[in-house]
What does this fold into?
Amino acid sequence: MIPMRPVGLLLGCVLIAVPPSVLAWGPLGHRVVAQLAQKGLTPAAQAQVDRLLAVTGARRLADIATWPDDLRDLDPELYKRTAKLHYVNFHSRDCLYDPPRDCARDRCAVWAIGHYAAILGDRSRGDAERAQALSFVVHFVADVHQPLHASYRDDKGGNDFQVRWHGRGSNLHRVWDSTLLNAAGMSYQALANRLAADARAVPQGDPAQWAQESCRVVRDDGVYPAARTIDAAYAQRETPIAEERLREAGARLAVLLDRELGRVGN
It folds into this structure.
């Protein structure tokens, strides 16, 4: 079990920049997921979220959505202890989650979501510990929906797969973290509003199923460009997939938070 520590000022410093090439979704994607989830909360869950956010000085879920990545600078030791919880490595292209194989010693995003959700929902724990768990849950649910954070390929989630974007070198992980989403130049609020306007139902499932979906996107949906070039055709094909993963993550995060926080009372 990962030891928890009080959040204090750490969660208040949520805007520290972190190199996007090693993260799942950039700040835009994480904040979109958080904003979508907040739109879907019940009043009881929202009251609990407000209570826990007050511990950190934050006002909304989007303010704490990047904190587990910001730990690289804020608290390198805690970041080191939680770094493997941002992703899950499938070891077969069948994309079937096998915990002993794919999450050895409970070091993956699938385990982390359940672990921190349980802390979040345990009202016998202190608000500071639960506030920290809230940030981890918000972040890791988004992470597991980023296809390259649940891949079966041996290239560090696309970080070792070099590509060209508008004549400049990049890597596939960076493209999916930030480049595709940022290309439209929208704020996280505007993108969340656009995605929220899509009223299609989202099947719920559980974190293992969400990770399996991401793995299948990597396998089946042309994520890896044959020519190693991210051109307009690639962006037109893949951006809607990335946005749909954000929409699904936001809807599922809202349900998870309602389940853990929606009970009336303290």
Confidence is low (pLDDT under 50) at residues 1-22. The chain has one domain: 20-89+96-261. Residues 232-261 form the longest helix (30 residues).
